[in-house]
Amino acid sequence: MRYDLVIFDNDGVLVDSEPISNRILAACLTELGHPTTYEESIRDYMGSAMHRIHDLILERSGQRLPHDFDAVFHARVFDAFRRDLLPVAGAGEVLRTLDTEGMPYCVASSGSHERIRVALGRTGLYERFGERRVFSAQDVGRGKPAPDLFLHAAEAMGVPPERCAVVEDSPLGVRAAVAAGMDVYGFTAMTPGERMSGATALFSTMDELPALLLA
Q1: Sheet order of strands, 105-109 included
Q2: Are 110 and 47 in contact (CB under 8 A)?
Q3: 152 closest CA partner among 141, 163, 189
Q4: Looking at residue 34, what is its pLDDT?
Q5: Which one, of 162, 188, 149, lies nearest residue 18 by Cα?
Q6: At what angle do helices 113-122 and 69-84 cross, to 10 degrees?
Q7: What mean pLDDT is predicted for residues 156-172?
Q8: Among the listed residues 202, 205, 158, the one whose alpha carbon sits nearest the alpha carbon of residue 184
Q9: Minimal CB count within 10 Å: which of 21, 113, 132, 188?
Q10: Residue 165 carries which DSSP code?
Q11: Which of these, 148, 133, 187, 160, lies nearest to 3 by C-alpha position?
């Protein structure tokens, strides 16, 4: 096979969480005096680990977010996830196809382990991964666009970077995968393809993905 491991981003690739979390993030920042629209949240923060959001707000405003910002934000997000979160259309079928073909896969997300568990659990996908195949930006010193998370996942799974494919929906994730020396397939459901410079290929629906990975 072309690859020995497929590394999936979680938010926006496996679970349709980006509209939910970015609406809540925009509202939280606006409440704190950092006016942010939903569209700006998508543009500036999608795919980011929490530390990057803190860094950007400090850089732009000279003000630090409150110490409890992450806890308040995640409480609102998790409540919304438990009510409304759905899997990305076709994501389950992609995983079943990879299982049938015997191609290993894992998830590597900028989100916390708790966020990943809540999201995959709510959508019925967690059982396809389990703890040994779930990797978070919490596990490494730097989140995307640094390559650390993807390199950590590959090492833990025992696969060289050049034998890995990454599935991403954010420019930050594409940059991280390229920096890790991995092929990366950009999902354009929410991000225009022109913002995913460096992607090996682009796809707009999940039913296109297996042919790219298994070619």
Answers
A1: 134-136, 105-109, 5-8, 164-168, 183-187, 201-203
A2: yes
A3: 141
A4: 98
A5: 188
A6: 10
A7: 97
A8: 202
A9: 132
A10: E
A11: 160
Split at pLDDT 50, 70, 90, the class of 152 is very high
The DSSP secondary-structure symbol of 7 reads E
Cβ neighbours of 93 (radius 10 Å): 14
Classified as helix, coil or strand, 126 is helix
Q: Is 55 assigned a catalytic role? A: no
Q: Give the span between the Cα atoms of 20 and 39, in whole angstroms.
A: 12
The C-alpha atoms of residue 22 and residue 18 are separated, in whole angstroms, by 6
- Residue 155's pLDDT is what? 98
At 200, list the tokens: 């090996």
What pLDDT score was predicted for residue 172? 94
* pLDDT on residue 142: 87
Half-sphere CA count of 173, side-chain side, radius 13 A: 32
Amino acid letter, 204: S
The active-site residue, picked from 4, 9, 55, 148, is 9
What CA–CA distance (Å, rounded) separates 100 from 93?
10
Question: Which 3 state secondary structure label does DSSP give 102?
Answer: coil
Q: What is the average pLDDT across 112-128?
A: 95
Phi-psi region of 132 (alpha: psi -120 to 50; beta: other; left: phi over 0): alpha
Beta strands in 60-139 (DSSP E): 105-109, 134-136
For residue 10, the SS3 value is coil
Instruction: Provide the β-strand partners of residue 136.
Output: 109
